[in-house]
From TrEMBL:
This is Receptor-like serine/threonine-protein kinase. Residues 500-785 form the Protein kinase domain. Residues 345-425 form the Apple domain. Keywords: ATP-binding, Disulfide bond, Glycoprotein, Kinase, Membrane, Nucleotide-binding, Serine/threonine-protein kinase, Signal, Transferase, Transmembrane, Transmembrane helix. GO terms for molecular function: ATP binding; protein serine/threonine kinase activity. One of its GO terms (biological process) is recognition of pollen. InterPro entries: Bulb-type_lectin_dom (IPR001480), Bulb-type_lectin_dom_sf (IPR036426), Kinase-like_dom_sf (IPR011009), Pan_app (IPR003609), Prot_kinase_dom (IPR000719), S_locus_glycoprot_dom (IPR000858), Ser-Thr/Tyr_kinase_cat_dom (IPR001245), Ser/Thr_kinase_AS (IPR008271).
Length: 817
């Protein structure tokens, strides 16, 4: 019946004149004791609305309802007894004392009645100009205001919102006013779709199917609910939003009373605003929700972002990656995305994402008084806080904070807002799409800057005064370019290491001894002391200083500062209680500490750290000496890559270079590097592959012996892999059986990384994805250097330190200049 074309309606009226009464009473009221029968109606004084009995569609049931009187397309806007139909036309709507409307059937049984909490002496039922059927005290004025009505149909809407209605909640009575769809065009009964103002967290408009959310509009930003139904400024409407302890509601009023419009939710869950156009005698859709696929609630999962402009529509927010990349490719976006760099809580930053529809705010927290800066501090304080934004875009104030994964956001070209999302500190500097970076200003960092300035000043002075050799360092001007690298005084280091006592010595690195120290404040540190003899080492140290100062990632060892004084050059790192990976991994007893889960965690961590070096850090950095002894472990066995002394940085797109100056460690070096001096990120990938196989097998690649064959670890792993016996690579005592798919996957990724041809090797970003997913991984080809002899024949190994207990030594071959 609704929206039936005019000619059909007219025929209908001719054939069944009783269904819609041709004659209507002039009155807009029903007095106490009076009634209207089927066939009689009342009409609002404006002549706009009419109330009476009707049958919807092809149904023969009778309902009491309200429709537009002067609109040729019969449009029912309200139904009294929507779930309780009358079966014949003997119904009667009566107002009884002390102010209740009752709908009686043929036997005078009550089919439906209005409720009232109050009694008045002289009740009157009246159909107001707005289309609100009210029961009020006849002794009062009709314009008394909604609070004084005994009952009003505006509190019990069906599928239609009319201007002036309050959609929302009365917290005192616990009553909600919401819309719900008809069951069908023949049945106005309560259908499955409903339209709500949901005040949980921060008010939003929700379309639900049953209890499940289908679409979301909002959250309220003090001007409108951003999203299609409230597109920018609407001159025909005045919006009112009221929120206090007792109530929250949303109300819109037509500016021009002659303007006819309504808002509905139909049986397919589409909510629409309609406007009557007299000239064409038809309803025109002013807007519709959902408007496009991106209005589907949570389509792209957590941290996904829907963009209708792109195909497929789901994207991940910048600096996030899909949780299930395989599924993502198959357009299964429900698993959503995760930060590509995990949060560490301390020192996190916030990045600004603009032009988006704010995420679901049902579990958010807000404060209207806070400034944006206070909001950031509040969010920073609590590690479970994921994002914040402005609450009130009108005043530019207030605070809205999320404590959970962000869901259901989309890009919006016009009505979008900005949100500040919590990110690991390293993301602030790493490449991504253009984003404004908001660094967290804390007292600590302010103090840090002051201390830094002071130590820099002292350090520079000392460099100038004390040491001619260090004068050459001056040409690097690193102290000016890299003010984020603090300098330690030698006396502090001497005290911390007990004058470099042997008790404090941790081991011997490529360029000299490594010590443990304890600063006066109790902080434990690691000191890498450049050996005095090693002229070569100073250059390496300089490089390391400059690069390292710029790098920050949870899987890279953190540099605290340096000390360059007198004959001494030192790097100061955070202390790693579990030493380096080789110490644990290749020790029969200690390696028991590393169950499979820890190993997998280490593999993943190293992969992320390396990915950061290769792609995400400001400079593209190739480590060139990745090996087990350069992987340090913190107290929780989190891996940290150390020793960037050999790192080379490339500007621009340069990814490959040739050098005469071969540095690295046998066993980890890729063929093209060891033999031809060609290095690229793929050389690091090779070393990573070796490392993975070592972690899995607990065996060193170099020094691995298999009496039957002259195979090294790579060759051995490859052979087992070809025979489908990969799991035999793992020590039988390791509790890996539970995780065998993960183990097999790691071995396969490891073998992919050590393939002969650099182009066949995956990039670190694919490695990270492959390690994390359950899906298909390409078959590996034969590794480079798969027998021991390949490599070392023809290589002069005299540069190796013979006294070293392991055969894993960083070698350098100085280039002639
Ligand atoms: C119903 O009520 C009306 C008015 O009170 C009365 O005239 C009529 O007889 C009643 N009908 C029945 C079936 O009781
Ligand atoms: C009238 O309504 C009453 C109460 O709902 C019901 O018991 C009765 O059967 C109805 N009579 C008819 C004729 O529908
Ligand atoms: C609801 O509205 C949409 C959009 O106008 C329309 O495509 C759909 O057919 C409607 N559903 C029903 C049951 O009328
Ligand atoms: C952080 O916020 C969550 C969610 O509001 C709360 O449950 C938790 O107690 C807060 N933690 C702290 C330390 O304030
Ligand atoms: C990042 O966090 C996820 C979820 O807590 C965890 O599974 C994963 O191991 C973490 N990654 C790192 C490198 O810590």
């Amino acid at each position: 019946m609704r929206r039936t074309p005019p000619n059909v309606v007219s025929c209908f009226l001719l054939i069944f004149p009783l269904i819609f009464p041709a004659i209507s009473g002039a009155s807009d009221t029903i007095e106490a004791g009076q009634s209207i029968r089927d066939g009689e109606t009342i009409v609002s004084s404006s002549g706009k609305f009419e109330l009476g009995f009707f049958s919807p569609g092809s149904s023969r049931n009778r309902y009491v309802g309200m429709w537009f009187k002067n609109i040729i397309v019969t449009t029912v806007v309200w139904v009294a007894n929507r779930d309780l139909p009358l079966i014949d036309n003997s119904g009667m709507l009566r107002l009884i004392q002390p102010g209740i409307l009752v709908l009686l059937n043929a036997t005078n049984g009550t089919v439906w009645s209005s409720k009232s909490s109050r009694a008045v002496e002289n009740p009157v039922a009246q159909l107001l100009k707005s289309g609100n059927l009210v029961v009020r005290d006849g002794n009062n004025d009709e314009n008394d205001g909604q609070e004084n009505f005994l009952w009003q149909s505006f509190d019990y809407p069906t599928d239609t919102y009319l201007p002036g209605m309050r959609l929302g909640w009365n917290f005192v009575t616990g009553k909600e006013t919401s819309l719900s769809s008809w069951k069908s065009t023949d049945d106005p009964g309560t259908g499955e779709f409903s339209f709500h103002l949901d005040p949980t967290g921060h008010p939003q408009l929700l379309i639900r199917r049953g209890s499940a959310v289908q679409n979301r509009i909002g959250p309220w930003n003090r001007i409108r609910f951003p999203g299609p139904p409230n597109p920018r400024e609407d001159p025909t409407y005045r919006l009112t939003f009221v929120m206090d302890e007792e109530k929250v509601y949303y109300r819109s009023d037509s500016v021009d009373r002659s303007f006819v419009s309504r808002y509905t939710i139909n049986q397919s869950g589409v909510s629409q605003r309609w406007t009557w156009v007299d000239r064409t005698r038809g309803w025109v859709i002013y807007f519709s929700m959902p408007a496009d696929i991106c209005d589907t609630y949570k389509l792209c999962g957590s941290y996904g972002s829907c963009n209708v402009g792109s195909s497929p529509s789901c994207e991940w927010l910048d600096r996030f990656v899909p949780k299930d990349p395989e599924g993502w490719v198959r357009a299964d976006w429900s698993n959503g995305c995760v930060r590509r760099t995990n949060l560490s809580c301390q020192g996190d930053v916030f990045l600004k994402y603009s032009g988006i529809k704010l995420p679901d705010a049902r579990r958010s927290w807000n404060n209207a008084k806070m400034t944006l800066n206070e909001c950031r501090q509040e969010c920073l304080r609590n590690c479970s806080c994921t994002a914040y934004t402005q609450l009130d875009i009108k005043k530019g104030s207030g605070c809205l904070i999320w404590y959970e994964e962000l869901i259901d956001s989309r890009t919006m070209s016009q009505d979008g807002q900005a949100i500040y999302i919590r990110m690991a500190a390293s993301e602030a500097h790493s490449g991504g799409k253009e984003r404004e970076v908001v660094l967290i200003a804390s007292l600590v960092s302010v103090m840090g800057v002051i201390l830094l300035g002071l130590s820099l000043f002292l350090c520079i002075r000392k460099i100038r005064k004390n040491d001619t050799r260090l004068g050459t360092l001056g040409k690097y001007k690193y102290h000016e370019k890299h003010p984020d690298l603090p300098f330690f005084d030698l006396s502090v280091i001497l005290k911390a290491t007990n004058h470099f006592s042997d008790n404090n010595k941790l081991g011997e690195g490529g360029f000299g001894p490594v010590y443990k120290g304890v600063l006066e404040e109790g902080q434990e540190i690691t000191i890498k002391r450049l050996s005095k003899e090693s002229r070569q080492g100073l250059d390496e140290l300089k490089t390391e200083l400059i690069f390292i100062a710029k790098l920050q990632h949870r899987n890279l060892v953190k540099v605290l500062g340096c000390c360059i004084q007198k004959e001494e050059s030192m790097l100061i790192y955070e202390y790693m209680p579990n030493k380096s990976l080789d110490v644990i991994l290749f020790d029969q007893t200690k390696s028991r500490l590393l169950d499979w889960q820890k190993r997998f965690h280490i593999i993943n961590g190293v992969a992320r750290g390396l990915l950061y070096l290769h792609q995400d850090s400001r400079l593209r950095i190739i480590h060139r000496d990745l090996k087990a002894s350069n992987i340090l472990l913190d107290s929780e066995m989190n891996p940290k890559i150390s020793d960037f002394g050999l790192a080379r940085s490339f500007g621009g797109n340069q990814t490959e270079a040739q050098t005469l100056h071969v540095v690295g460690t046998y066993g980890y070096m890729s063929p093209e590097y060891a033999v031809d001096g060609m290095f690229s990120v793929k050389s690091d990938v090779f070393s990573f592959g070796v490392l993975v196989l070592e972690i899995v097998s607990e065996k060193r690649n170099r020094g691995f012996s298999q009496s039957e064959y002259s195979l090294n670890l790579l060759g051995h792993a490859w052979k087992l892999y070809k025979d489908g016996r990969s799991l035999e690579l793992v020590d039988a005592s390791l509790d890996h059986k539970l995780y065998s798919p993960e183990v097999v996957r790691s071995i396969q990724v490891g073998l992919l990384c050590v393939q002969q041809n650099p182009e066949d090797r995956p990039t670190m970003s694919s490695v990270v994805l492959m390690l994390g997913n359950e899906g298909e991984i390409p078959q590996a080809r034969q590794p480079g250097f798969f027998t021991e002899r390949d490599v070392l024949a023809g290589q002069n190994s005299s540069g190796m330190n013979a006294t070293n207990s392991t055969n894993e030594v960083t070698i350098t071959m100085p280039e002639p200049r």
